[in-house]
Amino acid sequence: MTYSTLIRKLSYGVHDVAHLEEEEAYQLFSAMLDDGVSDLELGAIVMALRIKSESIEELLGFYRALAERVYPLNMPTASCRPVVLPSYSGALHQANLLPLLALLLRDCGVPVVIHGTLQSNGRVTTASILRELGILPCINLPQAVKQLNEQGLVFLHAVTLCPGLAALMTLRERMGLRNSAHAMAKLIDPFSDGCLRVVSVADPLQLEKMRDFLTMTGARALLLQSTDGEGYADPMRRQQMEFINDGSSSLLCAAEQGEVKHLPQLPDDIDAHTTAGWIRRVMAKEIAVPQSVISQLACCLYGCGYADDMSQASAIAASKSGNLVSA
């Protein structure tokens, strides 16, 4: 099938949306990742997918192509699974607390891999906050494995894990819009099913689709709605968090209902320097960890196998964060 045929198929009217079959999606995304599609055709394809949104079959095909091209990481020498945190948005409206979650996990003894972008696009990236905290991106995989074993936390640029995917994401700078590569980046598993992935989506309507995808692929993941595009819990209100494992989903944390009674102390500004300074004070137990972040920490501790059940995980999370009672 030619690209022009695929473009026509993807570009049917709103009321006659056509989706690619899984094998078609696999072949197409493989070519896209391997720089095998011309700029003109590539632009038409990513725009058509953006307008109609990917189907489950397309996500499955895209993911199969991606998984074949992600450079693997060796498992760290730890008693629990590593936690993988994608970071491709950055803060725009409120402080980015993903580095705080990562540091809390590391302090519990959980290996943490953050992968993402260095380009800010007007936002405050996780990489920039980590730099303020003295954590620089790893330049290659051997360095990443060494640092993960010695320090428990690494940041990897997407190009280090999958150059083809990173190239597709740079289309945002030329087209002004995200594309399917950004959705697939959140699903990267550098350990081949040996980790807990934290997967977040911005649109609540996409949660069901992502839940179906994760259960169909047998993934081990914590699924939640993103905060400002990133995968940390909203510090202003506890949100729903689901644990996906071996084809089933279970609710670990219910969404907070009603009026919020206690507002956390948050950074005065969202810039990297201010956010990093606030995180240092939180880690020094001068400022309380937002309760929703404690809840997410507990969910991660259970999901990665650090704790045997949620009761134990919640107690550990509350203790490690300096709070007497967890959410």
What is the averaged pLDDT score? 91
Q: Runs with pLDDT <50, length 5+?
A: none
By secondary-structure content and strand pairing, the structural class works out as alpha/beta
- Shape descriptor reads globular
CATH architecture group name of the largest domain:
3-Layer(aba) Sandwich
Q: Give the N-to-C terminal Cα separation.
A: 53 Å
Q: How many structural domains does the protein architecture include?
A: 2
Named CATH topology of the largest domain: Pyrimidine Nucleoside Phosphorylase, Chain A, domain 2
**Strand order across the largest sheet:** 3-2-1-4-5-6-7
Supply the CATH class of the largest domain. Alpha Beta
Q: What's the CATH H-level homologous superfamily of the largest domain?
A: Nucleoside phosphorylase/phosphoribosyltransferase catalytic domain
Annotation, overall tally of beta strands: 7
Q: What's the Cα radius of gyration?
A: 20 Å
Please trace the helix and strand order, writing H or E for each element.
HHHHEHEHHEHHHHEHEEEHHH
Features:
327 residues, alpha/beta, Transferase, Pyrimidine Nucleoside Phosphorylase, Chain A, domain 3, Pyrimidine Nucleoside Phosphorylase, Chain A, domain 2
How would you describe the overall organization of this protein?
- The protein has 327 residues and is α/β, with parallel strands linked by helices.
- It has 2 domains: 3-67, Transferase, Pyrimidine Nucleoside Phosphorylase, Chain A, domain 3 (Up-down Bundle); 83-320, Pyrimidine Nucleoside Phosphorylase, Chain A, domain 2 (3-Layer(aba) Sandwich), CATH 3.40.1030.
- It is built from 15 helices and 7 strands.
- The chain has helices at residues 3-10, 22-33, 39-52, 56-67, 98-107, 126-132, 141-151, 158-161, 163-169, 171-175, 180-185, 207-216, 272-283, 291-303, 310-320; strands at 83-87, 112-116, 153-157, 196-201, 221-225, 241-245, 248-253.
- β6 (241-245) and β7 (248-253) form a beta hairpin.
- It is globular and about 60 Å long.
